[in-house]
Amino acid sequence: MTSAEHARLMRANQANWDARTPVHVTSRFYGLDEDLDPERWFAAFEWEDLGELSGRDVLHLQCHLGTETLAFARRGARAVGLDFSAASVTAARDLAAKSGLDVTYVQANVYDAVKALEGRRFDVVYTGKGALCYLPDLDRWADVVARLLRPGGRLYVVEFHPLLHALGPKPGPGEGPELLLRHDYLGGAGPVHRDATHTYTDGPAVEGATDSYEWMHGMGEVVTAVTDAGMSVRRLRESDELPWPRWLRMIRTDSGWWRLPEPRIPLLYGLLALR
Predict the structure, then answer these.
(1) Beta 232-239 vs 211-214: how paired, if at all?
(2) Ranges for the Methyltransferase type domain (predicted)?
(3) What tens digit of pLDDT does each residue of 100-159 get?
(4) Residues 136, 9 contacting (CB under 8 angstroms)
(5) What string of DSSP letters covers 33-57?
(6) Which residues touch 14 (CB under 8 Å, ≥6 apart)?
(7) Gyration radius of the chain's alpha carbons
(8) Residue 195 to residue 107: CA distance in whole angstroms
(9) What is the pTM of this model?
């Protein structure tokens, strides 16, 4: 696909996330009207890999409602969140204000982040949990990240494992509990088109823009993009837990997250790289 076609599909995604936002803000899934605990979205190993954040400049790319961004601010970071959805950025700013936390939010496409952030550099760039699948070009993304990091800065990606994406959404009505491969594990076959009136949260149907596009990115593609951009991979973890029960037969663990009783397969991964 050409860059113009990629841009058109990303504009469709932007409209879709603008439409999703009011549903997500009021959903039980995010629980924003409750006592907010932004750290519930983090695996314990993330904090080990991220290290001390107090006094650090931390950028959260594709931050959506900024729930994880708030956790960085609570830990003393100078936190910045960036997202292409105007509705998401507005909601994130409202949430930060209600939480009494000083977080800066910027509306921009991730590929335009260097310009949007006026050349500012960061100690940590964080992204993940459903972000990379909305990017058609990982080489371009990794180049942007490298330009956003200070020398010695770290990229931390915590993403749903490409195997999870290959399994596709949870089974539909009338389908059995079997785990079935519904999509490619590897990228390169073009975007997966979805036309869904409901998102991954509870709540009413999305009004308006229901079309979205996702791109598959295998682990090799992610690691190669990062290293080709001049960053060195220092750690790669795979985890069999998710922060919510994607399948009905998942069981809750001591961490408060969820895993399949069998088979044990990777559902999440964490990648740490240094510039």
Answers:
(1) unpaired
(2) 59-155
(3) 999 999 999 999 999 999 999 999 999 989 999 999 999 999 999 999 999 999 999 999
(4) yes
(5) TS---GGGGS-HHHHHHH---TT-E
(6) 84, 85, 109
(7) 18
(8) 25
(9) 0.93
Listed residue (113, 209, 130) closest to 164, CA to CA: 130
Rounded CA separation 80/178 (Å) = 41
Backbone φ and ψ for 12, nearest 5 degrees, come out as -65, -40
pLDDT tens digits, residue range 60-99? 999 999 999 999 999 999 999 999 999 999 999 999 999 9
- Two structure tokens written together for 207: 């009004």
Residue holding tokens 């994406």? 165
CA distances (Å), origin 94, targets 91, 101, 202: 5, 10, 21
Long-range contacts of 248-251 (CB under 8 A, 24+ apart): 248/177, 249/177
* 3-state DSSP assignment of residue 71: helix
